Amino acid sequence: MKWILRIILAGLVLLAWMFRSAHSEHKETAVIRLLGDAEFSPFKLLFISDVHRRELRPDMFNDQVDLVVIGGDFVERGVPERRIRENLRILTELAPVYYVFGNNDREIGEERLRALLEEQDATILDDESVELFGNAKLKLTGIDYFAFREHSVENAFRTVEKGDSVIFISHTPFVFKHVKQHYPVSLLIAGHTHGGQIRLGPYGIFDRGSLTVSGGITELISNGFGTTTLPLRLGAKAEYHVLEIHPSPGRKHLAQSSSIG
Questions:
Q1: How far is CA 41 from the centre of its chain?
Q2: Rounded distance, CA 126 to CA 111, Å?
Q3: Burial 201-221 (b: 16+ CB within 10 A, else e)
Q4: What is the pLDDT of residues 107-118, one digit of tens each?
Q5: ∠ CA(172), CA(78), CA(237), 5° rounding?
Q6: pTM, two decimal places
Q7: What SS3 class is residue 159?
Q8: What are the C-alpha distances in Å from 156 to residues 136, 170, 184, 206, 256?
Q9: How many CA atoms lie less than 13 Å away from 243 in the CB half-sphere?
Q10: Is the dihedral of CA 138, 49, 204, 31 positive or negative?
């Protein structure tokens, strides 16, 4: 009988730990140098994705950043409008916000969410590229969740030219391979996978989030900030990212983990 009680107690402790992990927040930082010909002053980009049902607080974000990118699944069915509006307000007070749609966002109604984003002066990247800081060679390129549209990537890169320094934003990382093979890109950022959300050691539905460099191109896949289905995490911490981005002198590329104040 005692061993049954011990198993039950251990299970409750584990659930409490997983719940706490799902409602924590971790800031991941990196210094990144972009391939391409763009010349620009270093800037800071805050990336957050997969907020889902979580409530943001102003004291979560202490960095001075130059732009905020929301990588989709900011909401899902059942999230009250008050929470959506407040979460957006917190982020738009940090810096100009850019937004790409994820697979869950439309559950509250696309027109309703677009109205809330426009109300907070957020820029929705609808399969398009925009110049950053008035620099024609420095582009932020974003696509809608690819399952909902045809030719998303092709349309997004329509105004990108060879030699541009391009930051590519997608809700899902599963388009990264295609983008790298066909388009000039320096940095690719996505969420969607939640890092597997609940992992048993090295095993999970998806790989844990990571920042990697290969062939001079940086890829960031985030564990995301919220959860879906179950408000639990194990082995895949909730996170957002602050990236300090520099031009690449001599067309050399470097990405390194770093604490940036």
A1: 23
A2: 14
A3: eeebebebbebeeeeebbbbb
A4: 999 999 999 999
A5: 45
A6: 0.91
A7: coil
A8: 15, 11, 12, 26, 28
A9: 27
A10: positive
